[in-house]
Each structure stands twice: as C-alpha cells, then as structure tokens.
Design a protein that fits this description.
28 helices, alpha/beta, 18 strands, six-stranded parallel β-sheet
Length: about 675
Amino acid sequence: MTSISPSNKMANAIRVLAMDAVQKANSGHPGMPMGMTEIAVALWARHYRHNPANPRWVNRDRFIVSNGHGSMLHYALLHLSGYDLSMADIQNFRQMHSKTPGHPEVDITPGVETTTGPLGQGLTNAVGMALAESLLAAQFNQPGFDVIDHTTYAFVGDGCLMEGISHEACSLAGTLRLSKLVVLYDDNGISIDGKVDGWFRDDTPQRFESYGWHVVRNVDGHDVDAVDAAIALARQSDRPTLICCKTVIGKGSPNLQGGDKVHGAALGEKEVAATRAALGWNEAPFEIPADVYAAWSATAQGQAREDDWNTLFQAYSQRHPQLAQELSRRMKGELPENFQQTVTDYITACVQKKENIATRKASQNAIQALAPVLPEFLGGSADLTGSNLTNWKECVAVRSGQPGNHVNYGVREFGMSAIMNGVALHGGFIPFGATFLTFSDYSRNALRMAALMKIRSIFVFTHDSIGLGEDGPTHQSIEHVSSLRLIPNLDNWRPCDTVESAVAWSCAVQRRNGPSTLIFSRQNLPYQERNQAQIDNISRGGYVLQDADTATGGAKAILIATGSEVGLAMQAAQALGEQGVPVRVVSMPSTDVFDRQDAAYKASVLTPGLPRVAVEAGVTDFWYKYVGLEGAVVGIDSFGESAPADVLFKHFGFTVDKVVAAVKRTLGSE
C-alpha cells in the first residue's frame, strides 16, 4: 500500500473536514475547499506568519478567502492550526449563532480578517490591506526597525475574477506596485453553471501582466512544493503577484470531482464514504489523528514570531518613542487627545464666519481643520477630487514608490469603496473617499459590507440632488439618500451648512462601530444661526432649529428638513408666521442617528399631535415614517431635468409657496 506523505495527510484533513461539515449541515460548498487544500498547505505551513493565540497581532500576515463560499477551507485551517475554533464549532457549520457561518465574517470567527461572499470584494479588501501595510511601513519603519512588514494573501476563484470590481482593484494595485500582495487563483474551470469556458475565456495571466503584476503561470495546484516555490518567488517580487494554480474542483471525490455538482452541494453519504476510501482516510467524521494536528499546529511558532516582533518593537520604542506611541494609538483606533478640542475650536470658527457656502466646500474646510491632528486620515476620490473637494493643502498624493495620504482612485467607485474597507480592516488609518451621490449605486454593496462589518469607513458623496443643475437626470440624485438610509448600521449625514458639516465629520470620525456617509451639496447654502444648545444637539441627528413662541400658543405644525432644504424650510416658516401660522423647524441631518435617541428626546423634537411636513429634494415615501399618513412631504418622485439649479427647484415645487400650502393642507386650512 502506498504511504501518504505528511503534506498529503495535512491536505486530506481539510478535505474530510470540509465534506463532513457540509454533509452534516446539508448545506455549503465542498468543491473549493477540497480543490485548494494543497495550496493551503503550501501557504499556511510554509509561509503564513500568524499567531493563533493572538489573532490581532499587529504585524501578522493577512489572509483572505475572497471566494468565501469555500469558507470551510478557512475554518478547517483555523481549527487545525490552533485558533479558538473547536471541533464542535466545525460541526456547527452554518447553524444559528455559530462561529462558523456560511461565509466568513469578521469578528465572528477568530482569525477571519474580513467578511467575504460577494465575489471580488475580498480580493479588493486585500488590495486595501496591502495599501495600508505599505503606507504604514513608509511612515513608521526606521533603519533596523521594520516594525511593519507583513504580506497580504488572498485566495480567489473564477467568480472573483469575472466580477468587474476585480479589474478596478487589481489595476490600481498594479499601478501602485503593492508588492506585499500575493493572490492565489484557483483555476479549476468550473462555476455553478458548469464549465466556465462557455462564458469566461479571458487570458487571465496576460490580463494581470497588463496591470503590471508579477504572474506565475501554470502552477500545479495539487503539488505542495510547486505552490511553495511560487509563493517564494512572489515574496521576492517588487510587484503584486498572481499565482495561477491549476486545480480540480472537489479533488478526492471519485465520482464528482472536476464537475459543477460538487461546487455548491453536499456530496451525499455514499460519495462521502467513497471519498474516504479513495483518500485512505479511516477516521470517523470529525476525528483528526494526533500526528496531523501536530503537523498543522502553529501555536508555538506563531508565539515565537510574535515574541520576536515584541522584542523588536520594545527596542523601537526606546529608540523612537514618539513613533512607537503613535503607531500603537493608531492601530488601536484611538483618536488623539486634542481631537475634541480641535473640533470645538473649528465649530466656534464656523459660527464666527457665518459662511454661505456649498456644503462640499464646508466639508473640505472641515477636513482641512481636522487633518493636522489626524495623521491617520487617508483621503481620496474616484477621479473627482476637484469636485468632491476631499483634498487638503498639506495632503500628498499616493503614487508608486511615493507614500502619501490621498489616493487618486480613478473612475473606480466600487473598487474605491471596497479598498477603503480593506484599509479600515487593516487598521492604522481612517479612510474616506468620494464621488457624486448618484454613483453611490456603483459602490452600494461595499457600503453594505462596511455596515455589516461595523468598520469605520467614511463615504463622501457630493452633488446631492437636482441642485447640481445642468448635468441633468443622469447625475441628479433622487432616490439615493432614502435608499442609503435603508442599509442597517450605516449613518447617513446630509448637513445644511458649515456647522452641521463640521459636526457630521466629527461624528463620522468618532464612530467606531460602523461606517458613515457624508452627503454634500454643489450649490451654496445659507448659514443658520444657532445657540450652543442647538449646536450640541446636532450630533443627535435631529434638533429644533427654530421654534414658535410658546407665549403666543406655540407651534401649530412642524417642518422637517435636511441639507439644502433647511434654508427653504426656514423661509417657509417666516412666511407662515407672517400669515398667523407659527411652526417649528426641525433640521434632521441624520435620521439614522436621530432614530437611536431616547423616546423623550425624540418627542421633544417631534412633539406628538402636531401636524408635520417634511421637505427634501428626493423621493417622498421615506418621510412618511416621520410625518404619518396624515402629514405631507414636499419632495420629488420623478427624475430630474437639465437646467440651472434655481430653475429646477422652482419647476419641481421646492418653493416657499409650495411648502406653505403643504402645511396649510395638513392643518385643514387651505
């Protein structure tokens, strides 16, 4: 009988764990884990630097399974190498509240770096992590002290490379020569619908070479030594590397390997038994021999690697104490001690200046004020820097071989957003990137993933309504703000002036449990007068900007507005007051934040029983949750037109007369 090599036994342990877990759950994707096992052995046993006892070690390598449907591969690796992931957790695959969900989820499973599943985004997160590593290394490493020196590895499949986001991200990664990025491509020629050559015949190696990548072609993905050698070559390259591994999906399954039926369904009891026999694996389900555990264990080596790094960092701290302290602060995600004072001083300056400017310009001014105390700022724009205004005077453009703090992402909205997520996940930076609000549609799934992962990505969207004018309905956002508000855990801010813009930036930067969007106007907006109590309440998402005199009976109705429509609401309130109809004006820059306030505060702003009218240059349906069916909404439920902004606002009914009429209708007095 032919003996099985230690490497093959290590690989087969992954195969049987994957097929057994999927079989027990009667749900999952065994094909990829069974096909990429030798690749995993080559990487994790011979190159991957990590410490199972401390999944958050700063200088660990990063590993991403972009083809996240093959999650059992990752879970098997984590369990076998010594992470806090038990065999019971493996057996609980895809079950309620388990540590082994259907697709890898960050902060659910120790050792998982990002949430993957929407194909291509894991690969793009990896680009962001490699970008963060390179920029941190440039900022903090000193001669003899490479305290930031790690590699980002990603597993990808055909699906990841078919998704358009892979082009956006990998093109930029090649341009920036992110040499610490190594991607291993599971080239098995199979997807759910069958053999991919009917719909995917790209010359993938040539495609990546055109991006400027180092490509290792035609590696036998079932030869551990061959993959090992390819990874060694990749680590010597001065460019990102794609390793093209020829594999057989479902390798080891006698009757299903190489076909689409093994891609996304359990093998079945008979085929599981046949696979065990073919592999020479005699153990019962979910039993791993002690020698295989010993071969896979990374606990001792991982702790030794971290101990060596801790020794290096201790010496670095003695030689460069300020740098060491700053690196530690940034990797913990903590803000500088002078951040809050900086915000307070800047808001005071805004109050003194009383500027009537576009909120996109107010946003740039806020960035300019915060950037000197936030070296972790990593800004950028998707080829619209001069319009989005996300640059600042001292910012330095990131280029190949030139570290900086502002990224020209090119026309790559989706790629930008998912790269930002990777940067945020890596740590050490607060990323923000911008485009026009209407192109948030291109970024939407990355925004959703940021919200799901609860990470601090800040998405800046300008040109927020018909107010952008002559570019017309293709660029005029109508439904976008409301649709973004539907994403759980995404804080959306649409400020009305310089003060609200400053508060929105402050809240987004301070938020550590989720992303934020900051939505700004192209056109100038009037400054609104406030007292200190009102300024303090902006951070609560909604507040009373102007109220009626209680001595004369108080408000008869409430006007709720956001962004550019707050000024209109204030004008309408004046007109109504002159007609003997006193109203309250509520500015609500963030409905998401307002909804989290306690009932008493919300009732103090939106007093029960008072008729309400909402005013926003967007679709009307969203606002009925605040005004009720008996209330009114002044909005727009059709696409825009090409014309100057003032003409458009009048044409679509955003006038004082229209708002006044809406209030009177709710009062039954029209």
